Amino acid sequence: MSLQDRLSEVEHRIREACGRCGRSEEEIQIIAVTKYTTAKATEQVLLSGLTHVGESRAQEAQSKWEALQPRGTWHFIGHLQTNKVKEVIGKFEYIHSLDRLSLMKEIEKKAAGLNVVVNCFIQVNVSGEKSK
Q: What is the pLDDT of residues 77-102, one digit of tens each?
């Protein structure tokens, strides 16, 4: 199935879901997860009209980011180790995996040093399960 076919299917499912819950499609942002793909494949995603790209490994994203910047809005979606923060700050506009205070402090320190703002999504264990 081609990228355009997959994108059309996702957009169709979004339209249906929005219709069921009374939301506008304009409220929904698709993030194309491009982990395990090449810079060329990621470029095709950006050329398709998608502007948000998700990566889960800083080292693998590096070559894509260098080849394709300033195109796209980059999201770090994987588990982020504190020692990898320096590889993420300044490259990714969003971090989806803020799960501990020590990570937050390191992100803040590195972002302040580069004078950048990083939008973070905080993971919260609402179930109370210790394994989460």
A: 999 999 999 999 999 999 998 999 99
Instruction: Specify whether the CB–CB gap between 132 and 100 falls below 8 A.
Output: no
Rounded CA separation 24/37 (Å): 31
pTM of the model: 0.89
Q: In sequence order, which residues have a C-beta less than 8 Å from that of residue 70 and are 6 or more positions away?
A: none
- Cα-only R_g, the chain: 16
d(CA 69, CA 11): 26
Residue 72 DSSP symbol: S
Retrieve residue 102's tokens.
Answer: 């020590």
Residue 27: strand, helix, or coil: helix
Taking only the tens place, the pLDDT of each residue in 41-63 is 999 999 999 999 999 998 888 88
CA 38 to chain centre: 16
Alpha helices in 3-131 (DSSP H): 3-21, 39-47, 58-68, 85-88, 101-114
Q: How far does CA 58 lie from the centroid of its chain?
A: 11
One-letter amino acid for residue 29 of the chain:
Q
